[in-house]
Write a structure and sequence with these properties.
Layout: H1 8-12, H2 27-31, H3 40-52, H4 72-86, E1 88-91, H5 99-109, E2 115-118, H6 123-132, E3 139-142, H7 143-146, E4 163-167, H8 178-186, E5 191-195, H9 204-211, H10 228-232, H11 238-245, E6 249-250, H12 254-260, E7 272-279, H13 285-296, H14 305-318, H15 320-342, H16 349-355, H17 369-372, H18 378-396, H19 403-414, E8 419-422, H20 426-435, E9 441-445, E10 448-451, E11 454-457, H21 458-465, H22 467-470, E12 483-486, E13 501-504, H23 511-518, E14 530-537, H24 540-546, H25 548-561, H26 569-578, E15 588-594, E16 598-605, E17 608-615, E18 618-621, H27 623-633, H28 643-668, H29 677-695, H30 698-713, H31 717-727, H32 735-743, E19 757-767
Parallel strand pairs: 1-5, 1-6, 2-3, 2-4, 4-5, 7-14, 8-12, 8-13, 9-12, 13-14, 15-19
Antiparallel strand pairs: 9-10, 10-11, 16-17, 16-19, 17-18
Helix pairs in contact: 3-26, 3-27, 4-5, 8-31, 9-11, 13-14, 13-18, 13-24, 14-15, 15-16, 15-18, 15-20, 26-27, 29-30
């Protein structure tokens, strides 16, 4: 037998040289392996449908009512898709686009009873709309009724209501109010359609709190927001929060509607808006400086003192009458707070309401005062009493004349027009009604109205001022009205297009109020080609003290960042892109020529679809940017590109996708939220489950497993409130208590939280 120096292993196995070693492929790049190349139009349609969570092609469309305008049908379709996917949606079209009609059409599409949650002043308008289309026996709940604590529960007949439409939903942006907590409990297990043109008044947190009425806390983890609560506390990149929440919102601008639906059967036109400003105060600058100096000396109120001073300064800017009324309320506050401090306690809510009644929506920030006011020393209250007395003495010596009213008079005389004058102080409305009584003037105070000659019903005043918009016959000559005075309670939901001008006599707390005020006349169907807005700005001494204009500018920035004010038009553009083109196979890609090189990847991460734009080797999530590229692809020329270009883009996007998958997994077990009681309860329930398993109690084990899933999945705001109530009881907590809480809730929908990822579609743009 011949001997050989070659071992058997060498004989049968190839030798691997170091030069032959290659890196192991990134697992995600394997999972995201692109499919076949397809026509750009089909790839764009597939991408658009995936981003919108649209129904499959060929599925029977909803037969929307004929009374919807062309621009309203896509809004209704989009809202229905969002509600089907997430259990709720937000309609935030700009004012004047007919949101009430769209909301009603969506509610009727479910063909089951639904409930309305609306401000009390809008109940007649909604009732008229329901009657117009033969919708009978609809449950209507007012915002005001939800503000009571404890809230009177609805009768058992509300059990069938599985959809609630919440009009002027921005009133529920504060989770610390009774109305928010009561609504959150009311809508547990129901679909929710929120309607408001101004979901963001101050911060993006306003929007996130609204969405938590129907979204579980971790619902948008795959889109970069692991916790909605944490995002509301500004612990998440606000641009990511904006991009994620935009999937649940329909918010079209006027410009988008006019240009996107110009070819429809209904002419869509809005009046041109011109703006002007007037700088004037209610008294001389010298007296204003004295009054401002006096207000700055107020010290009682603890951490709420700056807010108390700010409220007084705002009333000073409105009118001396409003300032005098505010001083009386502040004096009453000092009395009650001093008494409470002497008793070693804080001001209670009932006492607080005696000092600061809910007279207007602009005072909504005052609901925070009971949380902020700290007991102070009796000395601070005594000193503030003396300051208030000095301020009232200054007012008693105020010179005759009011430069601010004089400026308004000149405006009305030199530029006649049917005008609405908005102020956020009821005393100012009464004062202006008296000063302008020689004109054809009327006023609205919340639920009541008044002509110069005497009191009248609110609706009677509105019909006399705007008969055309209110669908009323022309008023009697004696009741014809050219000037309407109102607080911001009138700035929501009403059609008053007969008017051609809005005067902002006071600047509101939020720029969202400015849009709501102007929206009363800047609407579809206005008879005016041009309408005007005139904004009264505070004089220099008061402006310096308020810094209100800077505050408004900062809030406008927050609104734009949050994606409101018509900047979410990319979702509406996707509706046009999805069209009726055949759906390209999953993972298909296309290549086009363009002005710059980039790649759009439409990727499904866990249970949500994300749009990633890769340019210059950097990957970022940008559904708006991806939409622009997809839109350009419709008219672009096809191009030939090396498939390796697409593979490089996928490799560049892999770290971002991995981070999203990790966030989904962490959210599943609340790993990033260590302080939440729900997370700490899970091991306790698991121990009870192990005991049930040892006993062989299968039913108990299944129930406990479902309880763990609910705690792990995160909860809606309402479910969390109910859990907090349970945990705040004085009796010792048992697993039986938790099970009772769990069983009374609707079954928790277990979403897909797996680590799945797949490429839906891709579009490569090559430099032309």
């Amino acid at each position: 037998m011949l001997l050989s120096s070659t071992s058997p292993t060498d004989a049968f196995w190839p030798r691997i040289l170091s030069e032959q070693l290659v890196a192991v492929a990134e697992p995600l790049t394997v999972a995201l392996e692109p499919g076949t190349q397809a026509p750009p139009r089909e790839v764009v349609a597939s991408a658009a449908r995936a981003l919108l969570d649209s129904a499959p092609v060929g599925e029977a469309p909803v037969a929307w009512p004929a009374w919807l305008a062309p621009h309203q049908v896509p809004a209704a379709e989009r809202l229905a898709a969002i509600i089907a996917r997430h259990g709720g949606a937000l309609l935030a079209d700009e004012v004047g686009l007919g949101k009430s009609y769209v909301a009603l059409a969506v509610a009727l599409a479910y063909k089951e009873p639904f409930g309305l949650v609306v401000p009390a002043v809008l109940v007649p308008q909604w009732r008229a709309l329901l009657d117009r289309f033969g919708v009978l026996d609809t449950l209507v709940i007012t915002h005001e009724s939800l503000s009571f604590h404890p809230y009177r529960p609805l009768p058992s007949l509300t059990v069938p209501y599985r959809l609630f439409v919440v009009d002027e939903a921005h009133r529920f942006r504060n989770p610390d109010t009774n109305r928010y907590r009561n609504l959150a409990r009311l809508v547990i297990g129901s679909r929710v359609l929120l309607v408001t043109a101004t979901p963001v008044h101050n911060r993006i947190a306003d929007l996130l709190h609204l969405l938590r009425l129907f979204l579980r806390d971790h619902a948008l983890a795959a889109l970069g927001v692991p916790s909605l609560r944490s995002a509301a506390r500004e612990r998440t990149d606000p641009t990511l929060a904006s991009a994620a929440t935009s999937r649940l919102i329909v918010a079209r601008s006027r410009d988008r509607v006019q240009h996107g639906y110009a070819a429809g059967s209904l002419a869509i036109s809005f009046p041109h808006v011109s703006g002007a400003t007037v700088r004037a105060g209610p008294t001389s600058d010298a007296l204003l400086r004295e009054l401002i100096t006096g207000v700055s000396r107020l010290r009682a109120g603890g951490t709420a003192t700056p807010l108390l001073r700010l409220m007084l300064l705002r009333r000073l800017g409105s009118s001396l009458l409003a300032f005098r009324a505010a001083l009386l309320r502040h004096d009453a506050y000092l009395d009650l707070s001093g008494r409470a401090a002497a008793e070693g306690r804080a001001l209670n809510p009932r006492e607080f309401q005696r000092c600061f009644p809910r007279a207007a929506e602009s005072d909504v920030q005052l609901v925070l005062f009971p949380l902020l006011i700290e007991p102070g020393g009796p000395k601070s209250f005594e000193e503030d009493h003396r300051v208030v007395g000095h301020l009232r003495a200054l007012l008693s010596r105020a010179p005759a004349g009011d430069p601010k009213v004089d400026a308004l008079e000149r405006l009305l005389s030199t530029r006649p027009a049917k005008t609405i004058v908005f102020t956020d102080a009821q005393p100012t409305v009464r004062y202006l009604l008296h000063r302008l009584r020689h004109r054809r003037v009327a006023a609205v105070f919340g639920h009541v109205g008044r002509f110069a000659a005497g009191e009248a019903g609110r609706q009677e005043v509105l019909r006399a001022f705007a008969p055309r918009a209110q669908g009323a016959p022309p008023p009697a000559a004696a009741l014809e009205t050219d000037l309407l005075l109102a607080t911001d309670l009138l700035s929501e939901g009403l059609n008053l297009q007969d008017a051609g001008r809005v005067v902002h006599y006071d600047l509101p707390w939020s720029p969202a109020r400015l849009a709501q005020r102007t929206g009363r006349i800047d609407r579809l169907g206005s008879p005016h080609h041009t309408i005007a807005t005139v904004t009264f700005l505070p004089p220099a001494p008061l402006a310096d003290a308020l810094a209100i204009e800077e505050r408004l500018a900062a809030k406008v920035g927050a609104q734009n960042l949050a994606g409101t004010n018509g900047t979410l038009d990319w979702t509406d553009q996707l509706e046009a892109l999805k069209g009726d083109a055949p759906r390209a196979p999953l993972g298909s890609w296309a290549a086009i020529s363009g002005p710059s090189a980039s790649t759009v990847l439409i990727v499904r991460i866990a249970n949500l679809v994300e749009a990633i734009v890769v340019a210059g080797g950097a990957a970022r999530t940008s559904p708006a940017g991806a939409t622009r590229i997809l839109s350009d692809a419709i008219a672009a020329r096809p191009a030939r590109v090396d498939p390796a270009t697409l593979q490089e883009a996928i490799t560049a996007a892999a770290p971002l996708i991995k981070a999203r998958l990790a966030a989904v997994q962490d959210a599943r077990w609340r790993a990033g939220d260590r302080d939440r009681l729900a997370r700490r309860l899970i091991p306790w329930v698991l121990s009870a489950a192990r005991r049930a398993a040892r006993r062989g109690d299968g039913d108990q084990l299944a129930t406990l497993d479902a309880l763990v899933s609910r705690l792990a999945l995160g909860m809606t705001a309402g479910e969390e409130f109910l859990l907090d109530e349970l945990l705040s009881r004085t009796e010792p907590l048992t697993v039986s208590h938790l099970l009772a809480w769990h069983i009374r809730l609707p079954p928790a929908h277990v979403e897909d939280t797996s680590q799945t990822v797949e490429l839906v579609a891709a579009l490569v743009t090559a430099l032309a």
